[in-house]
Design brief:
Layout lengths: L1 E5 L5 E4 L1 H9 L3 E3 L2 H10 L10 H10 L4 H6 L2 H9 L5
Antiparallel strand pairs: 1-2, 1-3
Helix pairs in contact: 3-5
């Protein structure tokens, strides 16, 4: 599977490798870059990447049911640990 960004839109889609090669060859898409991949993962309900901002992590924590005040009071490392089991330090 591959992620491609469709030309003329902000939409990033996951397609099989053969379809990705075809879309790229005919100019209807390009290979998704890191920013595209991070946006795709976040919109898919996945946790933010470790390079995401503290605010993005706090928003994700609230989406997962954490109280906004608690999410904002927590450190980025605490949120990463809580939601992924990985500390960013």
């Amino acid at each position: 599977m591959a992620l491609v960004k469709l030309r003329g839109s902000d939409e990033v889609v996951e397609v099989n490798d053969s379809r990705a090669r075809h879309l790229i060859r005919v100019g209807r898409a390009r290979t998704a870059d890191r920013e595209d991949m991070e946006r795709f993962l976040q919109s898919s309900g996945f946790a933010p990447t470790q390079s995401a901002t503290k605010a993005e992590w706090a928003d994700y924590a609230v989406e997962q049911g954490m109280d906004r005040a608690d999410a904002e009071a927590a450190t980025k490392a605490d949120l990463i640990d809580l939601f992924t089991g990985e500390d960013d330090g």
